[in-house]
Design a protein that fits this description.
The chain is built from 6 helices and 17 strands. It has 253 residues and is of the alpha+beta class. Strands 7, 8, 9, 10, 13, 14, 15, 16 and 17 form a 9-stranded mixed sheet that branches. A 4-stranded antiparallel sheet has the order 3-2-5-6. Bound molecules: uracil (URA). The site of uracil (URA) has 8 residues, from helix 5.
Length: 253
């Protein structure tokens, strides 16, 4: 529970109004939740709250008449984003965006990170704001694996450079892993798997370009323990219980 001032250096934990949190749990309508708060029947972390609009996060325990209200059901999805879709949920210019590919589950799901419009592949969606923050926090070094089709025949010097780090906008990239899948000398193109543990803007494209091998096609195939596998382009699936457990374990390291 918090007032509205926040340390600008801290990770922003998503917060919402107390009445919204109660309503979202399915306990009652928002209007009724407001009534309960005003009547002095709601506690947050054991303290009585009668102020409407008090901000709470998912980490706060909310109770009504002494009974704990469970937070909204957590949903975790993985999508195979097609090329040509932007990773925002709404767009003032009406461009194709990923929200049109999400199932309607009656809750707002947010993407964990972004992919460029012309990048295909894996994006996780969830309503678990805590998980989003943790997955994106650099301290967890979550691996992201991409298949990149490159212009030119990649060579060992370039691979070493990609792996050991490249100066991008004045900051060296963290160690990466490269696996060469195919070098087509006749058509002067290569296919590599590149695994990075950061999420800087256009990172893969910039790393490859700065090494002399522009990316022609890019697809993300893994994020941490979650793999794209055979998921059809433009479709979603729920993460399995073991996948959710693996993700949560990873973040507890
Ligand atoms: N790196 C890129 O350059 N683009 C993406 O979409 C993802 C990673």
């Amino acid at each position: 529970m918090t007032d509205k001032t926040e340390d600008s250096n801290s990770i922003q934990i998503p917060r919402e109004r107390l009445q919204k949190r109660i309503a979202k749990s399915g306990y009652c309508s928002r209007r009724h939740a407001e009534q309960l708060i005003v009547e002095g029947r709601v506690k947050v972390n054991g303290s009585l709250i009668t102020t409407l609009g008090t901000q709470v996060s998912e980490e706060d325990t909310v109770s009504v008449d002494g009974k704990t209200i469970s937070a909204a059901r957590k949903v975790y999805l993985v999508m195979n984003k097609p090329k040509g879709y932007i990773t925002t949920l709404s767009d003032p210019f009406n461009r194709l965006n990923v929200s049109s590919l999400l199932p309607d589950l009656g809750m707002q799901l947010k993407p964990v990170g972004r992919l460029d419009k012309d990048t295909e592949g894996l994006i996780i969606f969830t309503n678990d704001g805590n998980l989003i923050n943790k997955l994106l926090h650099p301290k967890h070094h979550i691996e992201k694996e991409y298949v990149a089709q490159l212009k030119g025949c990649i060579h060992s010097k370039a691979i070493k450079k990609l792996e050991s780090g490249i100066l991008l906008d004045g900051v060296k990239t963290k160690p990466a892993n490269v696996k060469v899948i195919h070098v087509d000398e006749q058509n002067e193109k290569s296919t590599i798997h590149l695994t990075i543990s950061e999420g800087r803007k256009h990172q893969v494209k910039k790393m490859c370009l700065y090494t002399g091998f522009p990316v022609k096609k890019l697809k993300r195939i893994r994020m941490g323990p979650i793999e794209l596998d055979k998921l059809k382009v433009g479709t979603c699936r729920m993460l399995t219980k073991p996948e959710c457990d693996m993700l949560i374990q990873l973040l507890e390291r």
